Amino acid sequence: MAKTFRPARAKPESPPPAAAVPKPAARNRVKLPPTLSVKELAELLELTSIEVIKQLMRNGIMAGINQVIDFNTAGLIATDLGFKVEALVASSKVEQAKKKKQPSPEEDSETLVPRPPVVTIMGHVDHGKTSLLDAIRKTHVTETEAGNITQHIGAYQVMVNDKKVTFLDTPGHEAFTAMRARGARVTDLAILVVAADDGVMPQTIEAINHVKAAEVPIMVALNKTDMPTANADRVKQQLGEQGLVIEEWGGDVVCVPVSAKTGEGVSDLLDNLLVVTEMEDLKGNPLRPAVGTVIEARLDKTRGPIATALIQNGTLKAGDTVVVGETWGRVKAMFNDARERVQSAGPADPVEILGLATVPRAGDTLTAVANERQAKERLEEHRTVQDQLLADARRAMNLEELYSQIKEGITKDLNIVLKTDVQGTIDPLKNSLENLSTEQVNVRIIHYGSGSITESDVMLALASKGVIIGFNVRPEPGARTMADRERVDIRHYDVIYRMVEAVAKALKGMLEPVYRDVLEGHARVKAVFSTGKKTRVAGVMVTDGRAVRNALARVNRGGEVVVESSVTSLKRFKDDVSEVSTGVEAGVGIEGYNDFEPDDIIEFYRRERSD
Ligand code: GDP
Questions:
Q1: Is residue 247 within 8 Å of 218, Cβ to Cβ?
Q2: DSSP characters over 465-510
Q3: For residue range 336-348, what is the model confidence (pLDDT) as tens digits?
Q4: Residue 126: CB within 6 Å of ligand 1?
Q5: Cα(521)–Cα(602) distance, rounded to whole angstroms?
Q6: What is d(CA 12, CA 313) in angstroms, rounded to the nearest whole number?
Q7: Most exposed residue of 20, 76, 224, 333, measured as fewest CB within 10 angstroms of its CB?
Q8: What is the C-alpha R_g of the chain?
Q9: How many other C-beta atoms can be found within 10 angstroms of the C-beta atom of residue 137?
Q10: Helix (H), strand (E) at residue 447
Q11: Nearest-angstrom CA–CA distance, 355 and 334
């Protein structure tokens, strides 16, 4: 192998050419919230709104000054404009995240002990996430254990220099985001895999943004360095452009060259991983009841529901009663990542659990409770909330008042179930949608929340004849099936303005179009002619305006309308004409009408949408 690997933390042998690399010191840093208006972004960047709007346009986004854009969009623009982007999370959220990570009512510092770091591997497809996970497992799992691993449980642990490290075995940022969407902050470190021969790709950028938004430390594994086409410097520069300036170039991101294929650099990667996570001072309290997050869950034909949970704090013991999302159970048996039966699992341990009543969802929180009664109480609270939502939706449907108003066209409701990937985007999205309400249509967000679209969301939408909007979230398979069966409309958006635009359009479609009649002219019937056995035409004189062939017509007799129809023919002598002006005679045929009488007044008009 031609390439020599060096530890990422070592001093660079030859600094790269300065011009090619964005200098971190010279770059402005900007902290961006999950959503903000174009104007606010401009203020943050100390630019004019026009400059920001122009940059948005260069990226194919037509946004106005007050348009609310999300973190990804704002991040893209800011990065394009030379800023180093960081995610701004309200301090209360940081607190919440910390609390989630280490729930600690009864904790004091004495009971806290160091726990293993939990690591997720992310990156563009085919850059080697799976291969790297395999390489890590192969080199760091003992022979006997490796033999046991026939099926992944969604996470595994390896020993690195006598220290345990937990890897989540569900590569891809979707899993990461799905869990984060439920408020679970499960990872302590994200390893971004970038293939050295391919460089930074769209999913690499997405992963970077997701990780930044979650405020999780990031480390780069520069993979496929065994390839002759590998170009490490190019990748490092591209990373810099994304705001990830690696240590070697004066930044703070550790970047380790590896080859998942040859195994080269993998140990180095793990060593560095320990250094980075040690700085986080990760602790847990093994003495308290367990709290964890479901990583994977499935139904086994013979063993029933099986869930892999990552214990985040406390210790889960065989026999414990647990509430997991909307289900509960007693832990009948537990297995570790090597499929060995275990009696307990502590902080940062992944464990497969048998004994739940039904299959939970990935991202569901697991909580050990004292007994069955407490479990049921918790579930009951949860269900009451769900039922209430459903009842609200049904009641709204049955309200006499509302119904009659809809019938009379006074009001119409567009009921929306809104699901988003992060809590922070809910309010701005809700506001943007509700602001679309008009006198005729009321946009009602009947339910909102973060997390993937579930069956209960579909039920709600169904019950309220509403639609579901998923912002950066997808339906769970069960929800998809149900929505298809019940014909519930699920719409997906990932950019706010596109969502707003689409809903605005939908609203126009929903409105009963309001028409107004535009008068063209009048003509007086002077004589009636037969043109066929049953068809007759009127010989008229246009008295004002004009007679028009492609128009609607009313026949008035003695002040009363005798027929409303459309013009079928308009002739001057034998020739078809499109219009006839005042003072001119013509022959007029009207659709489905033959009973003209002299002195009838024919009114020509057209109908236009007035909205
Ligand atoms: P994922 O989609 O990110 O999980 O990527 P995979 O792990 O499936 O890898 C995609 C392809 O790249 C596979 O054909 C791997 O064999 C190959 N690959 C992964 N890592 C390396 C590496 O370090 N060197 C080389 N030459 N090929 C690799």
A1: no
A2: T-EEEEES--B-HHHHHHHHHHT--EEEESSHHHHHHHHHHHHHHH
A3: 988 889 999 999 9
A4: yes
A5: 8
A6: 40
A7: 20
A8: 34
A9: 19
A10: strand 441-450
A11: 9
Give strand pairing partners of 415.
444
pLDDT of residue 399: 32
Q: What is the pLDDT of residues 307-359, one digit of tens each?
A: 999 999 899 999 999 999 889 999 999 999 888 899 999 999 999 999 999 98
128 Cα: distance to centroid of ligand 1 (angstroms): 4
Question: What is the whole-number distance in angstroms between the Cα of residue 126 and the centre of ligand 1?
Answer: 6
- Range ranked top by mean pLDDT from 90-99, 118-127, 504-513: 118-127
Give the angle 7-235-240 at the CA atoms, nearest 5°: 90
Q: Give the global pTM.
A: 0.53
pLDDT digits over 13-54, tens only? 333 333 333 333 345 788 887 777 788 898 889 888 777 877
Tell me the C-alpha distance between 603 and 529, whole Å: 19
Which amino acid would we find at residue 160? V
**Is ligand 1 within 6 A of the CB of residue 367?**
no
227 pocket-lining for ligand 1 (C-beta < 6 Å)? yes
Residue nearest to atom 17 of ligand 1 (CA): 128
Amino acid at 486: E
Separation of alpha carbons 249 and 253, rounded Å: 9
What φ, ψ does residue 177 adopt, rounded to 5°? Answer: -70, -40
Q: Helix, strand or coil for residue 165?
A: strand
Ligand 1 center from residue 357 Cα (angstroms): 39
Residue 194 CA to its chain's centroid (Å) = 24
**Residue 248: which of 35, 466, 594, 12 has the closest Cα?**
12
| Alpha-carbon 28 to chain mean position | 29
Cα gap 214→224, rounded to integer Å: 27
Residue with CA at minimum distance from ligand 1 atom 19: 128
How far apart CA 359 and CA 455 sit, in angstroms, is 14
- CB of residue 347 inside a 6 A radius of ligand 1: no
Return the half-sphere exposure (C-beta side, CA atoms, 13 A cut-off) of residue 338: 15
Sign of the C-alpha dihedral computed for residues 202, 204, 208 and 214 taken in this order: positive
Any long-range contacts for 104-112 (C-beta under 8 Å, 24+ apart)? 104/285, 104/313, 106/288, 107/285, 107/288, 111/285, 111/286, 111/287, 111/288, 112/283, 112/284, 112/285
Burial grade of 574 (CB within 10 A; 0-12, 13-18, 19 or more): exposed
Q: What is the β-pairing status of strands 344-345 and 316-317? A: antiparallel
- Distance from residue 130's CA to the centre of ligand 1 (Å): 7
Residue 10 burial by Cβ neighbours in a 10 Å radius (0-12, 13-18, 19+):
exposed
For residue 123, which atom of ligand 1 is closest to its CA?
A: 3
Q: What kind and span of H or E run contains 204?
A: helix 202-213
Instruction: Report residue 131: phi and psi, to 5°.
Output: -60, -40
Q: Answer whether 444 contacts ligand 1 (Cβ < 6 A).
A: no
With a 6 A CB cut-off, is 201 part of the ligand 1 pocket?
A: no
Tell me the two tokens of residue 12.
């660079």
Q: Which atom of ligand 1 is nearest to the CA of 193?
A: 3
